[in-house]
Amino acid sequence: MQAAPVRATAIPSFTDALRAVESLLLSSGQRTARRNAWTSVLEDRRRAKDRVEAQHVLERVLEQSLLTRH
C-alpha cells in the first residue's frame, strides 16, 4: 500500500480566494480605489476609538480636579 502523495502547494485562504475573484471582476483602478476606501474606513475607526479614549481621560481629569477642590 502506498502513501498518499504530499500536496506541494498550500490551500489558499478565504482572503486569497476573494482577492482572486476581485481581480477577475474589477479593473486594477477599481481594486485600488476599493482598498484605499477600506483603509480610510479603518483609519476613521481608529481615530474614533482614540477620540473616545481621550474623552474618557479628560473626564477623569476633570472629576479629579473637582474632587480635590472641595
From TrEMBL:
This is Uncharacterized protein. It comes from Streptomyces aurantiacus.
